[in-house]
Amino acid sequence: MASTARGGAEQETEPATADPAQGAQAPAAPAVSARIALAQVRIDQRRTRQLARLRPLSWLLLAAVAVSAWTSSPAPGLTGRHLAVSLALLCYAVPMALAGAGRWPGHTVRSRIVLILIVSVASLTLTGLVPSGILNVLPVSGAVMIGFLRLDLRPALLISGTSTVLLVVLLALTVSHPVETITSSVLLCVVLGVTARLIRQSREGQERTELLFAELEDAWEAETRAAAGAERARIARELHDVLAQSLSALAIQLEGARKLAERDQVAPLLQQVINRSVELTREGLNEARQAVGALRGDRLPGLADVAPLVERSARDLELSVELSVLGTVRPGEPQAEFALYRGVQEALTNVARYARGSRAEVVLDYRRGDRVAVTVSNTAGSAAAQAGGGGGNGLRGMRERVERVGGTAEAGLSEDGGWRVAMEVPA
């Protein structure tokens, strides 16, 4: 009756700044759920695809402005007004080219405002230096479109409105027929600005809806968990009030019967039956308490509790049982470890019931990569072939519990005529 163990073992927000007057760091932001994080990833991917569809328009606009500038007078050059045209065209072309390549450098509100201001100033400069043809219309209207696509409504209105007013002033001072030119230029700015704003509003509405759906699913899941927890607590109370208390009363009565049997010197066989009944009642009471704890969310017994289980079985069930641990011990999923613990408990109970006098061995094997295996085997005892006897409900429940966590369980006669129970679950 000895027990031994052996073996090896893209956001539109400014970065937050700390307030020195507070003298302490701001509290950490609440953790984002995996569902909301996944929704944000989908939103970013869709935003990238939508902006990619607008890239050809950026290239077309840039090409039209560049060709018009090179074929107008003064053309880009290195002296005087030619140099000014070159610099204005460069300041306009670089951001537009980056937008067309999908590498818009503005990642914060401030940087986007600065870039769009540069594009707007360059557009107005081109219009003022070369007041002819396409350059009267396209540069500023393109800047207006980019502004409404990339900025919130207030800064977009401020920059685009200012640019449009300055464009009207420049055209009134520089072109020969200002009314027609101003009308067409302002109309194009309004059409492109409204279109860009509608595109942005549609995108933002879709993003908000997706995030709200993710938050709603999180709330529904939390409510479901809370309801399940309340139901488990109710069942735990009922189980404690009915089953655990009944078993406690039965244990007290059996203990009294045992003492009476000892006092009256009844037949030894009857004393053994009473003693065995006391042990089974205590075992059932412990299991009932574990079930109540599991329903209440207490820590479930796992593989770390197998060694104490083996020691108790050797002592209380009068078994000769040995525990072996192979490989490096590592923690596993609680429900999977609980299923293995229950399997070992059931197997040792069956050995005590149906194979008295046999030797049992429990092996915990961690050497199978992403799985953990447990084997409980015993030699042939007085009724070894019946080790799976009885109604089979215990072994059936063990198999179902292991399969629910993605594992496998089997039981049957071993080659030496004993009984073997093998279980394996994901680590």
What does this structure look like?
- The protein is α/β, with parallel strands linked by helices.
- Helices cover 64% and strands 10% of the residues.
- Helix 1 runs antiparallel to helix 2, helix 3 packs antiparallel against helix 4 and helix 6 packs antiparallel against helix 7.
- The longest helix has 87 residues.
- The relative contact order is 0.08.
- It comes from Kitasatospora kifunensis.
- This is histidine kinase.
- Keywords: ATP-binding, Kinase, Membrane, Nucleotide-binding, Phosphoprotein, Transferase, Transmembrane, Transmembrane helix, Two-component regulatory system.
Which assembly state applies to the chains in this document? single chain
Number of helices: 10
- Mean of all residue-level pLDDT scores: 79
How many distinct beta strands?
Answer: 6
The fraction of residues assigned to DSSP E strands is 5-15%
Report strand order across the widest sheet: 1-2-3-4-6-5
Uncertain residue segments: 1-29, 383-391
- How many domain regions? 2
> Could you say which structural class the secondary elements and strand pairing correspond to?
alpha/beta
The value of Rg in angstroms is 40 Å
- The ordered H/E elements are EHHHHHHHHEHEEHEE
